[in-house]
Write a structure and sequence with these properties.
Layout lengths: L1 H24 L2 H8 L2 H4 L14 E6 L3 H6 L1 H7 L3 E7 L2 H10 L4 E4 L5 H11 L3 E5 L5 H9 L3 E7 L3 H9 L1 H8 L4 E4 L2 H9 L7 E3 L25 E8 L4 H14 L3 E7 L5 H10 L5 E2 L9 E3 L6 H7 L2 E4 L12 H5 L4 E3 L7 H10 L2 E3 L3 H13 L1 H17 L3 H14 L1
Parallel strand pairs: 1-2, 1-4, 2-3, 4-5, 5-6, 6-7, 8-9, 8-12, 9-11, 10-11, 12-13, 13-14
Helix pairs in contact: 7-8, 12-17, 16-18
Length: about 425
């Protein structure tokens, strides 16, 4: 059955490829990422020296920049024991991983078409495959299993939104998820979803979210970003389509009564910057681009990758995008780890447990409308004690969940020593 499914999957992949290529060519959203280092998408690598290495090879795959940051301690732990190959889906993730210099070789994930993925396995020759979160690629799993390569999922999760889709194709996904040797799940809820697909509970352990364990080393200063000490900085990170108007209107209302407000706004996709600019011009709002390096305006658009974490660090209050609209929200842990009060809408399904923990500790609040958002920002502006107390509670929530990365490392070590 699984051979039939993998054959069908590859045939469909090839049949729909022309439509995908057409979408990529005419879409700013995907074009830059997909065309970047295109040869790596076809498993054509330069500088990979597996044959000259005496160590076993550990292939770690994750989606993007956020996941790379979360696994840095894992890379540190295994870099002396294994030759580490790290693959990613996004351009920003690959660039960050390359600069990090904690893996022996960094590349983009090859296309999940059987001949291409098989070529990648033949070149990399991994002894172990570690997949971060939900990067389930059928050919990758199938080929690894056929080659008797151990497959481990870390920080494993299936969001409520994704689970609905996976559940509709249970007959397909159950065959491939059963090929995984060890699931280190993020939560009991995620573990139960893996069990739903027929995986034995003996193959599943629960670690908690490894993203809580990110150590903060260097914290930027406000003056580095040309912000005055008396400025109140509000950051809206990873906002999605449909949230631009709410954020801009909130700025307009607050700016009328508080002149020292500074809004930093980062769209989830840089290609959406032009839409934000259009909305700002329609409202006659002056703005600056972060890439310009000097921020005269009180409304700053973050138009380059990899800077949102620094902006969170110098902010007073942070809003988590994708939560006013039905996109499941984004990761609230990073700003909370900087002792920042967190605001988000009601749609935080992708980070349900994390958002609930922050609310429980009093480090985050749900905002239900534009008026509610404006009210809560003003409350933080005029009540410094409330601002500081909420930030400390957010940090306390993060500290209460630490330990997942150490648990994950030990589980991998114990599994590989069996």
């Amino acid at each position: 059955m699984i051979r039939f499914l993998i054959t069908t999957y590859n045939v469909l992949f090839v049949l729909f490829s022309p439509f995908a290529v057409f979408t990529i060519i005419f879409s700013n959203k995907y074009r830059n990422d997909v065309l970047y280092r295109l040869s790596e998408r076809f498993a054509i690598y330069k500088g990979l020296n597996i044959n000259n290495c005496l160590k076993k090879t550990l292939w770690i795959h994750c989606a993007s920049l956020g996941e790379v940051r979360s696994i840095e301690p894992i890379l540190d732990n295994f870099k002396d024991k294994y030759y580490i190959v790290l693959t990613l889906v996004t351009k920003s993730g690959r660039e960050y991983a390359k600069k990090l210099k904690k893996a022996n070789f960094v590349a983009l994930l090859p296309l999940d078409i059987y001949p291409i993925m098989y070529r990648a396995f033949s070149i990399i020759k991994p002894d172990v495959l570690v997949i971060v979160e939900t990067e389930f690629w059928p050919n990758m799993l199938y080929i690894a299993s056929n080659k008797r390569i151990k497959i481990i999922i870390i920080n494993g999760r299936i969001s409520a939104q994704s689970f609905k889709l996976y559940k509709n194709f249970k007959f397909f996904w159950s065959k491939f998820l059963k090929l995984i040797d060890l699931f280190i799940a993020k939560s009991r809820e995620d573990a139960n979803r893996f069990i739903f697909f027929g995986n034995k509970s003996s193959k599943i352990v629960i670690s908690g979210n490894i993203k809580y364990d990110k150590n903060i080393t260097v914290i930027p200063k406000r003056e580095d970003l040309f912000s005055k000490k008396e400025d109140f900085i509000f950051t809206a990170g990873s906002i999605r389509s449909g949230e631009e108007k709410i954020i801009i209107d909130a700025y307009s209302e607050i700016n009328l009564v508080f002149s020292n407000i500074k809004f930093f706004v980062a769209p989830r996709h840089i290609s959406k910057i032009n839409k934000l600019i259009k909305n700002l011009k329609n409202k006659d709002i002056e703005y600056s681009l972060f890439s310009e390096g000097f921020y005269n305006a009180s409304f700053v658009l973050i138009d380059i990758f990899g800077k949102l974490q620094d902006i969170y660090a110098i902010s007073d209050v942070c809003y988590i995008g994708g939560s006013f609209v039905n996109k499941g929200g984004h990761n609230p842990i990073e700003p909370a780890a900087y002792s920042k009060p967190i605001l988000f809408g009601k749609n935080m399904d992708n980070f349900k447990i994390e958002s609930e923990i922050l609310i429980k500790y009093g480090g985050a609040f749900v905002v239900h409308s534009l008026d509610d958002l404006v009210y809560k920002i003003k409350k933080f502006i005029y009540n410094k004690k409330f601002l500081n107390d909420t930030g400390l509670k957010a940090l306390k929530a993060v500290e209460s969940q630490k330990g997942a990365i150490f648990f994950t490392i030990k589980q991998i070590e114990n599994f590989l020593n069996v």
